[in-house]
Design goal:
The structure is a single chain. The protein has 85 residues and is mainly α. The chain is built from four helices and no strands. Helix 2 packs antiparallel against helix 3. The longest helix is centred in the middle third of the chain and has 17 residues. The radius of gyration is 12 Å and the shape is flat. The chain starts with 7 loop residues before the first helix and ends with a helix.
Length: 85
């Protein structure tokens, strides 16, 4: 089993996969925005997981989402992460 304490993003991904609903879309959108911020020197590499966690907390998970809700969850997660900087 991988060390999910060291690899926090892996822990978040596994949790999103178990949770289902919009969890994966939120994780993906938040990750894309956080990595973009890192690549543009706005946050540190080890802060990526923190930004993803904060987006998860802010947005929660919707069960049995429509395609439009999945797309919106990903976009909302990006917005949340970008608003933190």
């Amino acid at each position: 089993m991988p060390d999910t304490d060291t690899f926090r993003c892996l822990k978040l991904a596994l949790s999103a996969a178990r949770r289902g609903g919009t969890a994966g879309a939120v994780l993906n959108g938040a990750n894309e925005a956080a990595v973009d911020l890192f690549l543009n020197s706005k946050i540190k590499f080890l802060e990526i997981a923190e930004y993803i966690e904060r987006a998860n907390e802010a947005l929660g998970v919707r069960d049995n989402p429509s395609l439009d809700e999945i797309i919106a969850a990903s976009e909302n997660a990006r917005d949340v992460v970008y608003s933190m900087v």
